[in-house]
Design goal:
about 240 residues; alpha+beta; four-stranded antiparallel sheet; three-stranded antiparallel sheet; 14 strands; about 25% strand; elongated
Amino acid sequence: MKKFKISPRCICGEEILYLPFDSIEEVKESYGNLIDGVEDLGSVDVPEENCIRCNNCDIQFGNPPIKPELYDTPWDESPEEYEFCSELCVDSYKGRFTEKTSRTSYFECPLCERTICEQNPANGWMVQYRTDLIADKKVCLRCYQDNILENGIARDVFLGGISGMFFNHGNPEALDAGYEPVPGFSYFHVNSIHSRNKVCNKAIALIDSGHKVICGFERMAYGGGEGYITLLSKKGDES
């Protein structure tokens, strides 16, 4: 295998890669759409079976790969195994550069300190974070769930609209935490400003009377403009 110095157009920067080719012409033939220039730096003894394809730019290389801890969902106990040829490819894959549009971006959860995919195709492209828990911070749904089950959703959140999340069918997580459906607001259809305000006003009234309140999404249209929710509450801790 030979060692080549290549100059990809935007996603890798300038890297020295070990490629299973014998000539510059073969490199250009295979990666012509990715590179602007290539320089032959000579032969190197790297078995081809040890080569790895970068998960971002798909270039095959023999360098030791970079393996960041990236989680596809907040519920994963361990990160997915991704391998990259450069730190720039890591950043590109995580959505740092606008040129990268074939995958969703990643975010850093400030509570569990994991790097998690914002929207995973495996779960219907639902957003996997909320921003109403910590101002200007994306909190992953697992940490968000733990927080609202313990503390309820903050009163100020309902002043701006409905917030909540999808639990498992029947909202067992909320029921196990002691919450009960609010009468008249089980599988409630939200399809207008009036119905939204009805939910928010009820939630605020319950909070003002000493209850903790959460909202379970049952069915929701893409973008969240319309759907069915269940409002749940429980008496707050005695002070």
